[in-house]
Amino acid sequence: MKETDDFASLLTEFEQGHQGATEQVVKVGNKVRGTVISIDEEHAFVDLGGKSEGIMDIAALRDAEGNISVAVGDEVEATVASIDEESGSLLLGNQQARHLRGAADLENAYSQQQTVEGRVTATIKGGVEVQIAGQRAFCPASQIDINFVEDLSEFVDQHLKFRITKFEGGRRVNLVVSRRAILEEEQQAKAEELRASLEEGAVLSGTVTSIKDYGAFVDLGGIEGMVHISQMAFHRVTHPSEILSEGQPVEVAVLRIEKTDNPKRPEKISLSIRALSKDPWSDADSQFAVGSRVKGTVTRVQPFGAFVELTPGIEGLIHISELGAGRRVNHPQEVLSTGQQVEVSVIAVDMAKKRISLSLDEAKAAEAATDIASYAAPAKDSSNGMGSFGALLKASLDKQR
User: Fold this and answer.
1) pLDDT > 90: what percent of the chain?
2) 3-state class of 168 per DSSP?
3) CATH topology of domain 29-94
4) Could you give phi then psi for residue 183, rounded to 5 degrees?
5) Residue 255 Cα distances to 195, 206, 272, 302, 382, angstroms
6) From CA 137, how far away is CA 59, in angstroms rounded?
7) What would the pLDDT profile of 268-318 be if each residue is shown by its tens digit?
């Protein structure tokens, strides 16, 4: 009995001695505590004591802003998500329940094409990296904006809205997103709203999107219109780039709206910047009075004369007969050249036709002023009230008598 009792006591002692070791066997779902020993781009490695090591997906350690919440040497508590059969390593999940709900929400947003928010964390080959609900997503360069963006770094650290275009679940979620899809939808909504209220004569604000030799295209808010080079200013414009640049905000007036058969551009909209400026010809007759001497710049030389810009938007013509001051001139180039500064006499102003006649002859200013004064002077009244013609007729009759 004594030997039997001794054996029983030894068995009990053995079982009690190994009970702790049995309890130390880690299973899926157990919580473990360890120290972070290294972090790479995709994983954090955790020392769990003894020969045990845990591997944690880096996405599980990011906060709502996408920042890694731990550093090497920090102690973390995690749940065993699975065990790698080949290496025996423990695959850990930090706040695993929240992480899984985030992935489920993203899958739901993908299936229903809902808008999600994310922060651009870095530029990578072909696009940018975006952190969304603790998950890393990829946005191709062509999908970050409607227009081509040369420097993608301008988006880094920006919080933007995206649409999930690809979702692959699993231990590591694969996400591809697009911002362009949302921008195009917003642009289309603005276009429909603008199209409903668009009318000729309306004054709108817009942004120059592109410049051509013949004019500039302006985005009015989902709809593009064009400002022809002739509608940019009252003065002569050689190229639109003299007035406008891409990205420049402008205010324009709607000149014409023409319907088209193109579904992408159902209307052709003609715009004007010039229409919003004061017409320099409105007071040209007082600014450049007949008989005055003014300065200007020769803009063009033609066989029949030379054009002189007196002020932006107003040109006058020196006829070839007014170039020689009495001597014969065969071609205006004998006297003037483009770009030359000149002082001229104003000899006639036609406001209806917007024409100003000029002369190089200084004496012509006095002559023109005298002619205008004579033309404007009131006629002397005769005794019979018939005016100057009546006086001449009376004098002729008296002479005949």
Assistant:
1) 39
2) strand
3) OB fold (Dihydrolipoamide Acetyltransferase, E2P) (2.40.50)
4) -60, -40
5) 15, 15, 7, 33, 55
6) 11
7) 999 999 999 888 888 888 899 998 999 999 999 999 999 999 998 899 999
